[in-house]
Write a structure and sequence with these properties.
It is found in: Cell outer membrane. With about 750 residues, this protein is mainly beta. The protein has six helices and 40 strands.
C-alpha cells in the first residue's frame, strides 16, 4: 500500500524543487472518477471560486482505509491558535495563501493575499497608504493614523503597523488569513481579523538558488536565496535578497509617467540549536521601496489612467527590524519568547492639485505641494506557554507588551488652518503602549465534541502632541487617553466523522481609540480621540474532506455588528480629509476548496459574499444610514487550475507545468455617501514552465493581469467630481531559476 504525495496547488509558479522520483503512473482504477469529482465540485457551488486552502505540502501518513495507489491532497498546517495544527481541526474561517501565489504580484503582495482570500480586500491609495479589509470590516474611507487598523498584520507573530503592511514579503513560507475578531491571541486592532506571514526559517535545509525575471513595462527582478547548516548540530543560517524595478504605467501630462517602483529587500537569520530542547532564532530584515505614485486621478478620462499633476510626486519607504525568538520544550509544555524591534519611515511629496480635476471643476489649476515625513519605532515582547502538539487538550497562556513611538512632520493644507496652510510645518508625536494578558483552551468531550474558549485583557495608553515650526501657541497642544478592555472568543465544534466537522462561534472584538494624524489644535486644544470601534461576530461553519481526501471544502456564514467604526472622508468644501465615526454591520459567507481531478491536475477556489449596511447611529446618520460600507464588494471570486506532467508528451526531457488563475472583485461603494461605485474588475494570470531532469533549472514564461484591467483601488468624490487610484497594468515576461 502506498499514498502518492501530491503537491498543493501552485497556480502561478511551479515549485522550484520537485522530486523526479515522485512521478507516478495513474492507477488503473481510482476511488472516484475525475468527471465525478469535477461534477461534485461544481454542484457544490464552486464553479467560480478562488485559490484558498493551499500551503507547502506535507507527506500524508498512510491510513487504514486508503486504497492502493490512492491520490490524496495533503493536510494544511496552520498556527492560527499559536500552535501547529491541521487546518481542518480549527473552528475558524481561515485561508492559507502559498508563496507561489504571492509571486503573481511581487511588488504588491497585499493585492495577491486579498485576491486569493474570499471576502478580503486590499485598499491601495498609494505606497504606504494601504490597508486590508476582511468581511467589510476596515477603516471606513482611509486610516487616520498607522495604528487605525481593524485587521492585525503580523510577520512571524510580530505585530506590525499599517505602515509596514505594504512590506515586500520576501522568502515566505505561507500567509494565514484569519477572519473574525482575533484579539484573543493576536493583540489589539484585530477587530475584523488577522493576517500572519510565516517566513522560511533557518532550519538547516540546504537551499541555494537564484531567480531572474524580465518583462514588459521595464519590469525586472532578481532574487537570491542561501540556506543551510553552518555548524553541525549547532548553527543554521538562511538569507534572501531581492532587487526589482518597474517603469511607471500611468501617463502624466506634465511629468514623467507615474507608478514607477524601485525595490531592494533583504531577510536573513541564524538559528542556534546547541542547547538541548532549545532553539534561539535571530532574524533581521530591510526594505527600501521608492516610487512616484499619484495623489489621485480624475476618473474616466479619455486615456485613463491619466494624471494632470503639475509636480512629479515621490515616495520613499524604508523598513528595518530584528526579532529574537527563544523556544524551549519542557516535558509537558513549550515556552516561547518573541522580542522584536521595527523602524519604519515614509517620506512622500505630492502636489494636491491635478489640472484635469481642476478643469472639470472649472477652477484654474495651481501648484499645491505637500510633504509628509512619517516615522515610527515599534518595540514588542510576547511570552507564552503552549501545550505540545498532539496533546488531547490544546491550551496557551501568555502576556505581551507593544510600544510604538510615532512622529509626523507635515507641510500641507490638510495639516494647518488658513492663513498658514503649507507655510508652516506641523509636527505630531503619537506614542502608544499596549499591555495584554491572554489565554485560550480547547477541550474535547463526549468523543466528538470540542469546546474552545479564550480571552485577553488589554490596557492602552495613548498620547498625542502637536507643535509647529513657528511656535504658534494656538497650534500647540496635547491630549492623552487610557483604556482597559476585554476581548474574547468561544466556539463549539462537532465531528460527525473523521472527514466532517461543523462549528459555531461567538467573538468580541475591540480596537484602540484613535487620534487622527491630520489635523491641528484650536486655541491650543487638541480634540479627544474618537471612540474605540467594538463589535460582535457570529459565525457557523463546515469543514469536510470527500472522495478519500481528493476534495476538501470549507464553508462559513457570519454576521458582524460593529459600533463606532472610525470614518475618514474627503470634505469637498475644504479639499481635505476629515474624520468622524459610524456604526455598521456586515453579513455573508465564504466557500473555499481544492480538488485533485487527476494525477497532476488540481482545481482550487474560493467564493465570498458580503452584504453591508451603515447603521443609524453615528456622526453622519442623517445622510448615510442604510448605505453600503465603503470598499466592501458584495462578491469576490476566482478559480485556478494547475497541471504538471512529464515533458515526454513533447518528446522533451524533464517536466512541464501550466497554471492559470482568474480572479474577480465586484463593484463596491467608494465612500460612505455611496456617491459612486468603484468598477468591478477581472484579473487573469498565467504561467508555463519547464524543469530539467536534474530539477536544478527551470525556465518559464508568465503573464500577469493579461486582460490589462486597471483596477480602481480607492475612490473619493471632490465637489461632484470622481477621483480614483489605479492598480498596475499588464506585464508579460520570462524567468529562470537555477539551483546549486
Amino acid at each position: 500500500m502506498r499514498i502518492i504525495r501530491i503537491k498543493p496547488p501552485q497556480i502561478i509558479v511551479l515549485e522550484r524543487q520537485m522530486n523526479p522520483s515522485n512521478t507516478y503512473k495513474l492507477p488503473a482504477k481510482l476511488p472516484a472518477s475525475p468527471i465525478c469529482l469535477l461534477a461534485t465540485f461544481l454542484a457544490s457551488g464552486w464553479a467560480c471560486v478562488a485559490e484558498a486552502q493551499t500551503a507547502p505540502a506535507q507527506t500524508k501518513p498512510a491510513q487504514t482505509n486508503a486504497q492502493p495507489d490512492t491520490l490524496v491532497l495533503d493536510p494544511v498546517e496552520v498556527t492560527a491558535r499559536k500552535t501547529r495544527e491541521d487546518l481542518k481541526n480549527v473552528p475558524e474561517s481561515i485561508t492559507v495563501v502559498p508563496p507561489e501565489s504571492l509571486k503573481a504580484a511581487p511588488f504588491d503582495p497585499g493585492a495577491a493575499i486579498a485576491r486569493n482570500s474570499p471576502n478580503v480586500q486590499w485598499i491601495s491609495k498609494a505606497t504606504g497608504q494601504q490597508f486590508f479589509s476582511i468581511r467589510g470590516v476596515s477603516s471606513l474611507g482611509t486610516p487616520v493614523n498607522f495604528s487605525d487598523g481593524t485587521v492585525a498584520f503580523n510577520i512571524d507573530g510580530v505585530p506590525n503597523s499599517m505602515m509596514s503592511a505594504s512590506n515586500i514579503l520576501l522568502d515566505v513560507n505561507r500567509v494565514e488569513v484569519m477572519r473574525g475578531p482575533q484579539g484573543t491571541l493576536w493583540g489589539s486592532n484585530a477587530l475584523g481579523g488577522a493576517i500572519n506571514v510565516v517566513t522560511n526559517q533557518p532550519d538547516g535545509t540546504r537551499d541555494i538558488h537564484a531567480t531572474g525575471e524580465i518583462g514588459s513595462n521595464g519590469y525586472r527582478m532578481g532574487e537570491m536565496v542561501l540556506g543551510g547548516n553552518i555548524i553541525a548540530d549547532a548553527l543554521d543560517g538562511r538569507m534572501a535578497v531581492r532587487f526589482g524595478h518597474q517603469d511607471g504605467d500611468i501617463r502624466s501630462l506634465y511629468t514623467n509617467d507615474l507608478g514607477e517602483r524601485d525595490i531592494a529587500a533583504f531577510r536573513g537569520g541564524l538559528r542556534f540549536t546547541g542547547i538541548e530542547n532549545t532553539t534561539v532564532t535571530l532574524t533581521g530584515s530591510y526594505l527600501r521601496d521608492e516610487g512616484n505614485p499619484p495623489f489621485y486621478l480624475l476618473r474616466n478620462t479619455s486615456r485613463s489612467p491619466l494624471s494632470g499633476t503639475l509636480t512629479e510626486p515621490s515616495s520613499r519607504t524604508t523598513q528595518g527590524g530584528a526579532t529574537v525568538t527563544v523556544e524551549h520544550e519542557f516535558d509537558a509544555f513549550r515556552f516561547t519568547s518573541v522580542s522584536a524591534y521595527q523602524h519604519n519611515k515614509l517620506d512622500s511629496k505630492s502636489d494636491n492639485t491635478d489640472k484635469l480635476l481642476y478643469d472639470a471643476l472649472g477652477f484654474p489649476a495651481f501648484s499645491s505641494r505637500g510633504h509628509l515625513d512619517d516615522r515610527e519605532n515599534i518595540y514588542s515582547q510576547e511570552l507564552r506557554l503552549n501545550s505540545l502538539e498532539g496533546d488531547p487538550v490544546r491550551w496557551v497562556i501568555g502576556a505581551s507588551v507593544a510600544r510604538t513611538e510615532g512622529s509626523r512632520a507635515c507641510v500641507s493644507t490638510q495639516c494647518a488652518p488658513p492663513p498658514y496652510f503649507d507655510a508652516i510645518t506641523m509636527n505630531t508625536d503619537l506614542d502608544s503602549t499596549n499591555l495584554g494578558v491572554f489565554g485560550d483552551i480547547s477541550i474535547p468531550f463526549a468523543e466528538r465534541w470540542e469546546f474552545s474558549i479564550g480571552g485577553r485583557l488589554n490596557h492602552d495608553d495613548i498620547e498625542l502632541k502637536r507643535r509647529n515650526s513657528r511656535d504658534i501657541a494656538a497650534l500647540t497642544g496635547s491630549n492623552s487617553t487610557s483604556q482597559t478592555y476585554p476581548t474574547g472568543r468561544t466556539a463549539l465544534a462537532y465531528k460527525w466523522s473523521d472527514e466532517v466537522q461543523t462549528y459555531v462561534s461567538l467573538a468580541r472584538g475591540h480596537a484602540t481609540r484613535v487620534y487622527p494624524l491630520f489635523g491641528y489644535p484650536v486655541n491650543g486644544v487638541v480634540d479627544d480621540p474618537y471612540p474605540a470601534a467594538t463589535g460582535w461576530t457570529y459565525e457557523a461553519g463546515l469543514k469536510t474532506s470527500l472522495f478519500d481526501d481528493r476534495l476538501k471544502l470549507d464553508a462559513g456564514v457570519y454576521h458582524n455588528d460593529i459600533k463606532n467604526g472610525v470614518l475618514s472622508y474627503l470634505d469637498p468644501a475644504l479639499g481635505a480629509f476629515r474624520t468622524t465615526y459610524q456604526d455598521y454591520e456586515t453579513t455573508g459567507f465564504e466557500l473555499q476548496g481544492r480538488a485533485l481531478i487527476a494525477d497532476g491536475l488540481i482545481l482550487t477556489g474560493g467564493l465570498g459574499y458580503t452584504h453591508s449596511k451603515l447603521g443609524a447611529n453615528g456622526a453622519s446618520t442623517n445622510t448615510v444610514a442604510g448605505n453600503g460600507v465603503p470598499n466592501a464588494p458584495k462578491w469576490t471570486a476566482a478559480t485556478g487550475l494547475q497541471y504538471d506532467t512529464s515533458a515526454g508528451v513533447l518528446t522533451l526531457p524533464g517536466r512541464l507545468s501550466f497554471g492559470v488563475q482568474y480572479q474577480f472583485t465586484g463593484s463596491r461603494p467608494a465612500d460612505v455617501d455611496n456617491s459612486f461605485d468603484l468598477k468591478p474588475y477581472h484579473i487573469v494570470d498565467a504561467r508555463v514552465g519547464w524543469n530539467n531532469d536534474a530539477n536544478d533549472l527551470e525556465i518559464y514564461a508568465f503573464g500577469r493581469n493579461l486582460l490589462d484591467q486597471r483596477a480602481e483601488t480607492f475612490g473619493a468624490r471632490f465637489v461632484g467630481v470622481e477621483t480614483v487610484a489605479a492598480g498596475p497594468g499588464r506585464i508579460v515576461g520570462l524567468g529562470i531559476t537555477k539551483s546549486f
